TrEMBL record:
Annotated membrane topology: Multi-pass membrane protein
GO molecular function, one term: gamma-glutamyl carboxylase activity
Organism lineage string: Bacteria, Pseudomonadati, Bacteroidota, Cytophagia, Cytophagales
PANTHER family with a match to the protein in the record: HTTM DOMAIN-CONTAINING PROTEIN, VITAMIN K-DEPENDENT GAMMA-CARBOXYLASE
Protein name per UniProt: HTTM domain-containing protein
Amino acid sequence: MPHRLLAALFRPIDIAWLVVFRVGTGVLLALEMAGSLALGYYKEYTQPKFHFSYLWFDWLPHWPPAVGIGLHAGAVAAGIAVAAGWRYRLNAFLLTICYTLLFLAEQTRYINHLYLYCLLAAWLCVLPAHRAASTDARAGRVAPSATVPAWVRYVLIFQLSVVYFYAGLAKLNADWLLARPLSVWLAPKATYPILGPVLGHWLTPWVMSYAGLAFDLLAAPLLLWRRTRPWMFVVAVVFHLSNVIIFGLGTFPWFSLMMTGCVYFPPNWPRRVRGLRRWLSARVPVAAVHWSPNRLAIPRHAGLLLSGLGLYAAVQLLVPLRSLLYPGDVHWTEEGHHFAWHMMLRSKSGQISFRVVLPDGRTQVIAPSTYLTPRQCNKLAAQPDLIIQFAHFLAEEYRQRGLGPVQVYADSYLQLNRRPPCPLVSPSLDLAAQSRTLAPAPWILPAPAAVEAHKQ
């Protein structure tokens, strides 16, 4: 790699932005888990009799209630410690472990921003965000520094740009361009005070659909260009605050605003903000960041580091595209939906029941609500991967009761964006005999013609 490019990646930049990012990330990730405890969402990890798992992670144990609550509380404590920069490396690691274990513990709790939080918590483990304005630096546990290598900022710019761009790319489908999802979501909000008439107007879903598409696709390039950056940030503020007002979405809009401001603006931007200037001046000395490409010493581990960054970038760029390898529409089959930044793209509801055929020919009809929480039942009816997991669970349940081997069939009907219900999986295939793999599932029925228009 040319020396000048290496020098650009390792040149020193002001650490002020990274300090603000560390504090904001620690506080908001702590608030996310504190909200889960306060609102009772943690029960989705502790109450179900059966937990859905991601492919290859079914070996994870089902946590008892005390462990589930402890992981939430641990994430809160670790987030606060990260924000303060106290035992930073240890607490960033604990924050990553708590978030990742909870994320993997229950597939029906998949939310894109929780996936993003797991990734960023892992990055905090390796980024030197505690070199200034931290209790570690003040106590002498780490050598203070007023600068960080430029690649630290570029990594976070890349990560957020991937989220924005792929969220926009996913909106390039027929239903979004026809404003179907937002028409479904905004209709019940027509009775809201003040905003109700606006949200219920027939034109509003169209405006919001195309505004959201344009924002996601253009956010990264216009934030990277110095001339358009301030204007695009104003648009980002309006976009994310609109999501707060209309949809809520927890900490994610606030986190997106915080991270957008931190990474896209010049590294020393916090020193220009009146509320931060005094706080930073007492904790982070202004550094001389003048450098010469010919005089900058490149670390010996630079090649290994850049190889790791390149591998990470390749994974982040390729994994969201895997849905293109599957036949049919991803919003119907869900194959390739996870880890692809498909955020609020479709409205799905359905009904499902299971038929268990015993060896003697008798048939028993199983209602999923016998084993699952209401949220799990709602997700089950819409996601084929959950359907086959539950079918395998029923087969194992009957085997352990000495009633197997059994055959398991599913009768499912799914509505996508308020279309008429249609069968989702084949009612004549024994799901207990089907394997769960990355390959296209042969037991998922083709989407109705109106839905297949997505792919045409």
